[in-house]
Amino acid sequence: MKREEFDAEGVDIPEEGDFFDDSKSYRNIPLLVIVGRPNVGKSTLFNRLLHKRRAITDPTPGVTRDPIESVAFIEGKPVRVMDTGGFKLERVAGTPDAAMDEMVVEKTLQSLKKADGILLLLEAGPATAEDEEFISLLRPHWSKLIVAVNKTEGGRREADAYNFLQYGFKDILCISAEHGDNILELGELIVSRLDFSKVEEGEEERRIRVAIVGKPNTGKSTLSNRLTGTQASIVSDVAGTTRDVVEGEFEFKGHKFQVLDTAGIRRKSRVHEDIEYYSVNRAIKTLKNADIVFHMIDAQEGLAEQDKKIIAHASSAGIGVIFVLNKWDTVRGDKKFKDVETEMKYLFGHMEYAPVLPLSALNGSGVSELLTMAIELFGQLSRKIDTSALNLALSDWVAASPPPQGRVNQFKIRYMTQTSANPVRFLVFATRPEAVTTSYLAYIRNRIRADLGFDRIPIVLEVKGSRRKWEQREG
Description:
The protein is an alpha/beta fold. It is built from 12 helices and 17 strands. The protein has helices at 42-50, 96-114, 129-137, 158-161, 183-193, 220-228, 274-286, 305-316, 337-347, 367-381, 387-400, 438-452; strands at 24-27, 31-35, 68-74, 77-83, 117-123, 145-150, 173-174, 200-203, 208-214, 246-252, 255-261, 292-298, 320-326, 356-358, 413-420, 425-430, 460-465. A 6-stranded mixed sheet has the order 3-4-2-5-6-7, sandwiched between helices. A 6-stranded mixed sheet has the order 10-11-9-12-13-14, with helices on both faces. The radius of gyration is 26 Å and the shape is elongated.
């Protein structure tokens, strides 16, 4: 699959809004876990059930490593659907790949224990040794099992598919995850096998959405697991372990958090695999769904050029950023946190407002301080200033430092309004917007930070032409 074809993959993906109400929250939703050997189409089916491209799909076996989970609405019912890594039997002992495969399989087996339903996905054709081994492991969970045979579009190889009945399955369903054959029938079967009696519906509670980003192997997954109190993300010394965005939830000081553990972002020149290319782009896109970014930096290695590029995506979008110096407990010698913080403030001069915090994701030191700071940032991101109060402050700022009065660069500031919160945006109206200097906008921005309580977050400031004063704007 070529990179330029990635966004076009799949067929007829409807709009999300056609399937559920974002204002609703559901509790006690049954969990459906999709399992099977590598490359049978689990991630494609996962995306199909969700009606969106949530998991990375690629012909390369073993693309999915961490179990990823999302809520789908199947036949009008909310279902937590989990995509798991493929069960691999053949491994070269002692290699990094073999160790990774062991961890992937262990995650999959753990997922089976908490599943309400297990969807075993097979591929039409002769059963492989991996199929048979995995089927035997599923025997204790037989009552939860739903069996589908994939890649039978247009009736292709259906006769071969029914050979799987020899393993004692009550029934099987032939489908095509890519083309959509019998997906409606599969949905009906899933709903008929799950218990929805405990599902409760309520109003959606606002969560603080945190994206954990940074270079590979800086401790993102370790922090994600510690925050959620799970082992949802595989932790390994092998850089690039996380490929999909792994989601989790937790609560701290009465605030609900949603955490997004992303793949490590590295320079494009170092991105060789198609899979990693997709992971990097998925991580960057994830920033758009975040309120706050925890930017993980290895305290031993320090900053790199790509760190600036990552943060540029966040700050330009008005997302709160916290620089997290992870592995601080391993720093030795005369290195002092204050010196490192000063250096970072210098390197990110335009982001001097962003907090810098020391952390050890491994032993948990600094986590409470990090989450407390995240709550403070979220409060600032959510703040909305009344227009009348804003313009009273603006008149004081202009009086304290009037705009230039030269013939060429003369302009007058008429009024200002806050156009949005989270991201925080302000619109300044001036007589000659083209004459408003960058330095004067910086002055206004700094006064907003200092006087209105936005001292730790990015502020987007735009200018528009107007000859009317604030009091005359309705006239």
